[in-house]
Amino acid sequence: MNMIRSSRFYLCLFLFTTWFFSAHTTDTIDTSQILSDNRDDTLISSSGVFALGFFSPGSSKNRYVGIWYNNIKDKTVVWIANRDHPLTDRSGTLRLIEPGGRLLLLNATNATIWAANVSRSAHTPLARLLDSGNLVVTDANDEKNIIWESFDYPTDTFLPGMKLGKNLVTGHEVFITSKTNNDEPAMGGITYHCDPSGYPQNVIKEGASFRYKTGPWNGVTFSGSHNLVKNDIFTYGVVISENEVYYHYELINTSLYMRFTVSEDGVGQRWLWSYHTQNWKLYLTIPIDSCDIYQTCGAYGSCNIKTTPACACLSKFQPRDDRGWGNGDFSNGCIRRTPLNCQDGDVFIKYSGIKLPDTERSWYNASMSLQECKVTCLKNCSCTAYAALDISNGEHGCLLWFGELVDIREISPGQTIYIRMAKSELESGGRKREILILTVMIGIVLLGLSLFLFYQKTKKMKPETDRLRHPDETHEELELPMFELSTMSKATDGFSVNNKLGEGGFGPVFKGVLEGQEIAVKRLSRTSLQGVDEFKNEVICIAKLQHRNLVKLLGCCIQGQERMLVYEYMTNKSLDLILFDQVKKTTLDWPRRFNIINGIARGLMYLHHDSRLRVIHRDLKASNILLDSDMIPKISDFGLARTFGGNETGADTSRVVGTYGYMSPEYAVEGMFSVKSDVFSFGVLVLEIISGKRNRGFTLVDHRHNLLGHAWILYKEERSLELVDSCVEYSRYLSQIERSIHVGLLCVQEQTEERPNMSSVVLMLNNDGVLPQAKHPGFFTGRDIIRKETSHSSNTASSVNAMTISLLEAR
Q: Per-residue pLDDT tens for 412-439?
């Protein structure tokens, strides 16, 4: 009897002690403890970041058990236990049942309002709130043995460390669901998933209907995600195994607060806490525009937010419903203009720069090559397209589509897909084989006649256009394919504004498709003052140049007053569009940046040392470096180039051409140019690629030096790594980056003779030999540039906005 009284005494003492210290917090719910709303009990994680307790949302008087950020003034709730079953008063208690480990939320009558779904039990259960915001129940004797966790049952918030996806063994799926409104956290109609169907992609659903799909995971990001790019705030990825498929993200700096939510109106939002303003800043949203809405343009329709209307059929497809399409109803999509005929043999046509289609009906194999992928698709008549599965290190793996392709949009840089087409589509735009053969035969005759007529006509043109060919070249030696104007018009859809890629001093550039190959057509503007000379230079300089780091000239068109150059199309367009864009630049990690630097160096080495004629480019800049689908750099735009024979390495001129910010001092001031002028421009490019900043317009608060001057100061103070773009993770590449900065500074030295030649540059970039000390760069400060530019001869055309100066001197 005394033992019973003693036990009662100690129990009463324990309960009194628990009540007395209820204001003090802990990170563990012991089985003998009760989290009571009446006592305002709060459970806080060990670091103090998160808290678990009772709360009322907005203006509601209902009570819920939830987790929120503990040290943020405006309560931001990230998880709710009883979101669909609120308490109507403050009588709620949260208990941990022993043995077993089940969490129960009880009301005043001890009726269960909410219970954790525990699939296994613990003999001595222990509940803890982790620093990640995850409430877990473990066995006290084995805390790694988690029998239940709140991360498996999220509400409307996706936190760092959470797995969004599906357990393929148990079938349990983790996804987030919107709340009804700010006062009512009950489950709304919007959900956000990592959908493992076919091949993983993240999706937003409204009920059973899809509202948005990211496109498939490609090893780097999701194919259609514009703003989910590599950054210095968080890492992310998709894990695919036999047992589970999930998407996750983790903070690089754990002192930051980040969360992803799905709103009641169907928008996914990533939020980042600002310590400065003490509020949540919107980091990104999805969908971001109408082209992100699922199936906006129907099957085989491609969406481009920059055009009106935004929807267009893919090349070689046509609207399924012409009337509806004309009235702005694109839901019926497009169909092939030539039906497939698997028995007679089909082919694949390449489409680049797009968000890959919905992969709900797809198949994949991670070990296949792209060629094996093509063969596999070709053998199956139901296979409609194929693409590389993973682009994280080149293109590898196989992704196949079955059925119609939907949810396509133009995106930069985008990916490449190969779509199954009728064989005749490769035969002169779908003509029959017999007609093609006849046309080719007639074309040969007409081509010869056209060349003869062109030769006769050019003799009558004014002197500056009469010299289309170099004195040392004959037209036959150029061996450059000539295309008809009608062919160019058809390839570019009548030089459609929708196909226009841009415009420079030469004239507009259009994207086109010629015999299944994507091309870029540079069309001389009739109002251009320098186009004829540029046209001549392009033909002379690069007609026979063949190097993987030079853009390839495929041919030209000369008909009447028309002058056109036909190039291979570069999927990722020009370097400047990526390098100087705050979002796109994050796709350029250090290995890619170094490969671009190295590729440009090798291309210049070929021009200066290895080609039949020595070529000085004279307008090397970021916008004249094009990037193909593999981000391989190609030097382009030879309109201002000069060629030399024998041992000639330079010349002088009274008319300066090129782009200030990239020009060497001796050229901009004295009109003297040489291979070392290109070396200087290359050095500027190297420092821009490393820093992600333009040389022209570069400013810092504490000095007025341009990028070259800033880089040199950091180099002298042994702080070169401070030059590196903030979005680049460089800890594994310190030596290579410092060496690249050093080489860049050697190239921009003020004295011409002290700059290395390009063969030395390639060698220095790719070995560990000792480098000479870099000396004072040319154009050390922004003020120095302005002084020298304004003191130059009045014959020099100047530019302060990095546009090309293109007043050409007589040759």
A: 888 999 999 998 887 544 455 555 566 6
**CATH class of residue range 575-790:** mainly alpha
Confirm if 532 and 540 have CB atoms less than 8 A apart. Answer: no
Number of Cβ atoms within 10 Å of the Cβ of 571: 20
What's the pLDDT at 65? 96
pLDDT on residue 12: 40
Contact of 202 with 194, CB cutoff 8 Å: yes
What tokens does 367 get?
Answer: 């070990």
The pair of structure tokens assigned to 340 is: 């497939």
Superfamily of domain 25-199+230-280: Bulb-type lectin domain (2.90.10.10)
pLDDT tens across 499-530, in order?
Answer: 998 877 677 899 999 988 999 998 887 665 55
Residues 6+ apart with CB under 8 A from 776: 712, 749, 750
Catalytic residue among 41, 156, 195, 619: 619
618 contacts: CB under 8 Å, gap ≥ 6? 640, 641, 642, 657, 658, 667, 673, 677, 678
**Burial of 586 (C-beta count, 10 Å sphere; 0-12/13-18/19+):** buried
CA angle 317/319/320 to nearest 5° reads: 110
pLDDT band at 24 (very low <50, low <70, confident <90, very high): very low
Cis peptide before 463 (omega within 30 of 0): no
- pLDDT on residue 434: 58
Residues of the chain with CATH 3.30.200.20: 433-568
CATH 1.10.510.10 occupies which residues in the chain? 575-790
Distance (Å, whole) CA 665 – CA 532? 28
* Beta strands at 408-410 and 334-336: parallel, antiparallel or unpaired: unpaired
**Per-range mean pLDDT, top range of 261-270, 654-663, 665-674, 695-704:** 261-270
Give the pLDDT confidence score for residue 122 in this predicted structure: 81
Query: Residue 619 catalytic?
Result: yes
Contacts with 240 (C-beta within 8 Å, 6 or more apart), sequence order:
196, 200
CB distance 498 to 601 below 8 Å? no
Please give the average per-residue pLDDT across 348-376, as a whole number: 95
Give tens-digit pLDDT for 593-614. 999 999 999 999 989 887 777 8
Q: Which of 705, 307, 724, 672 is nearest to 500 (CA)?
A: 307
d(CA 506, CA 525): 6
Tokens matching residue 640: 């201002």
Helix and strand numbers, DSSP H then E, in the chain? 16, 45
Q: Is 287 helix (H, G, I), strand (E, B) or coil?
A: coil
Q: Reduced to 3 states, what is the DSSP secondary structure of residue 165?
A: strand
The boundaries of every CATH 2.90.10.10 domain in the chain are 25-199+230-280
Confidence of residue 354 (pLDDT cuts 50, 70, 90): very high
The string over 152-191, giving b where at least 16 C-beta atoms fall within 10 Å of a residue's C-beta and e elsewhere, is: bebbbbbbbebbbbbeeeeeebbbbbbbeeeeebbebebb
Q: For residue 216, is the peptide bond before it cis, meaning its omega torsion is within 30 degrees of 0? A: no
Checking if the pLDDT of 381 tops 60, the result is yes
Query: Minimal CA–CA distance to 479: which of 562, 391, 556?
Result: 556
Q: Work out whether strand 642-644 and strand 157-158 pair parallel, antiparallel, or are unpaired.
A: unpaired
CA torsion sign for 392, 396, 397, 402 is positive
If one compares 79 and 309, the residue with the highest pLDDT of the two is 79
Quote the CATH superfamily of domain 433-568. Answer: Phosphorylase Kinase; domain 1 (3.30.200.20)
Helix (H), strand (E), coil (C) string for 166-224: EECCCCCEECEEEEEECCEEEEEEEEEEEECCCCCEEEEEECCEEEEECCCECCCCECC
Locate 545 and state its tokens: 């140049």
Q: Which H helix or E strand runs over 20?
A: helix 2-20
Bridge partners (DSSP) of residue 433 are none
